[in-house]
């Protein structure tokens, strides 16, 4: 029997285990996973050809995990990746709730408490920070992979037959046909789309958390530049050519490169399953640069790949459960805005200042 799952819950305070929840909100089965202290020993030779001794090095805990993506559990990962979160409860009992996530300028991100199992033992991870998040889909399941850094860990032996795996009722793994893509204002003809990926990086500065007096991280790592890239792949069709030219030449209706202009476009990703039609995730990138790649090989169909980099120069409208006919909707300036409509409850805030 194998027991390879990752459990997560939000932390009240970064890396503090006293009074922390001792059970995860859910488990996600891992196809790949590794969590290591990164404590490489520091050796010395003192003029000898042989190593004369070693001392423990700095602890730089980091990990990776991967599995299938679903709309019931993705909220915790979006919560950890983005610095902004807003929750709106459904009007009536049983109605879906609205979770909103978007990128802002905060450098201290939400932290999580984690439980990673490796068949015979469990690692309890505190101060988990999501350094990168990647979503990929082509011809079958959407996969989700993460890179983490964290503060500290403990480990326990487990009994596989009695270990409680917290499943999420109604969680449906996403497939390629659950994904809808709109480039531009829905006016960019992409042809048949064969691949989509999203990758976000927070570039945490873990080195700056370790100093004189302790091997362990002494404070929460700060997130640096946020990098968000997307790619779309399709087969070349005649209607796509005008957009290839616009992307390469910097503006529409040109037959050669512009002197200084660059084309930017919005991208809207909509994800929903027929099993749970009331649950929807929309990912909106209001302004992105676009580069295009294409090449031919013999008589095969030509594949075209659009590579996008999100810019923080666009705006997105926040959800409101009130009548806003006479009021301007609240907007935020961001590189990416995600709205998740699901029956899952509020994700408890990590910081209680």
What does this structure look like?
The chain is mostly beta strands. It is 5% helix and 41% strand. It has a 17-stranded antiparallel β-sheet that branches. The chain has a two-stranded antiparallel sheet with strand order 4-5. It starts with a strand and ends in an 11-residue tail after the last strand. 34% of the residues are buried.
Mean pLDDT over the residues: 93
Query: What is the subunit arrangement here?
Result: single chain
What's the total helix number?
Answer: 2
Shape: globular
Low-confidence stretches: none
Round the Cα radius of gyration to an integer and report it: 23 Å
- What class do helices, strands and sheet pairing give? mainly beta
Please summarize the sheet with the most strands: 17 strands, antiparallel
How many E-type strands?
21
SSE pattern, N- to C-terminal = EEEEEEHEEEEEEEEEHEEEEEE
Fraction in helix: under 10%
Strand content: 35-45%
Whole-Å distance between the termini? 44 Å
Spell out the key features of this protein.
353 residues, mainly beta, two-stranded antiparallel sheet, single chain
Write the layout of secondary structure elements.
Layout: E1 5-10, E2 26-29, E3 32-36, E4 42-44, E5 53-55, E6 62-68, H1 74-81, E7 84-88, E8 97-102, E9 112-118, E10 121-137, E11 143-149, E12 152-157, E13 179-183, E14 193-201, E15 227-235, H2 241-249, E16 264-272, E17 280-295, E18 303-310, E19 314-317, E20 331-334, E21 337-342
Antiparallel strand pairs: 1-2, 1-9, 3-6, 4-5, 6-11, 7-8, 8-21, 9-10, 10-11, 10-12, 10-14, 13-16, 14-15, 15-18, 16-17, 17-18, 17-21, 19-20
């Amino acid at each position: 029997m194998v027991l390879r799952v990752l459990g997560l819950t939000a932390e009240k305070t970064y890396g503090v285990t006293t009074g922390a929840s001792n059970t995860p909100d859910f488990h996600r089965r891992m196809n790949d996973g590794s969590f290591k202290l990164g404590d490489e020993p520091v050796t010395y030779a003192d003029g000898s050809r042989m190593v004369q001794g070693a001392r423990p090095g700095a602890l730089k805990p980091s990990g990776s995990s991967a599995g299938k993506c679903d709309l019931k559990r993705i909220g915790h990962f979006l919560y950890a990746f983005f610095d902004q979160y807003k929750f709106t409860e459904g009007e009536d009992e049983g109605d879906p709730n609205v979770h909103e996530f978007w990128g802002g300028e905060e450098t201290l991100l939400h932290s999580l408490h984690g439980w990673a199992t490796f068949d015979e033992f469990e690692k309890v991870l505190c101060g988990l920070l999501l350094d990168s998040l990647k979503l990929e889909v082509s011809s079958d399941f959407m996969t989700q992979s993460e890179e983490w850094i964290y503060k500290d860990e403990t480990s326990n032996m487990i009994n596989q037959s009695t270990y409680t795996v917290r499943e999420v009722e109604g969680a449906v793994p996403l497939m390629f046909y659950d994904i809808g893509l709109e480039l531009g204002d829905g006016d960019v003809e992409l042809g048949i789309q064969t691949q989509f990926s999203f990758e976000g990086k927070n570039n945490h500065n873990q080195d700056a958390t370790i100093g004189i007096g302790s091997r362990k991280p002494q404070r929460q790592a700060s997130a640096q530049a946020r990098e968000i890239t997307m790619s779309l792949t399709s087969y070349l069709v005649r209607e796509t050519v005008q957009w290839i030219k616009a992307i390469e030449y910097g503006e529409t209706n040109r037959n050669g490169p512009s002197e200084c202009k660059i084309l930017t476009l919005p991208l809207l990703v909509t994800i929903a399953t027929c099993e749970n039609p009331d649950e929807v995730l929309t990912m909106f990138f209001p302004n992105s640069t676009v580069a295009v790649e294409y090449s031919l090989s013999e008589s095969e169909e030509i594949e075209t790949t659009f590579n996008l980099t999100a810019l923080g120069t666009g705006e997105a409208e926040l959800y409101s459960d009130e009548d806003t006919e006479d009021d301007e909707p609240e907007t935020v300036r961001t590189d990416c805005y995600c709205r998740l409509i699901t029956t899952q409850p509020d994700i408890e805030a990590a910081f209680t200042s």
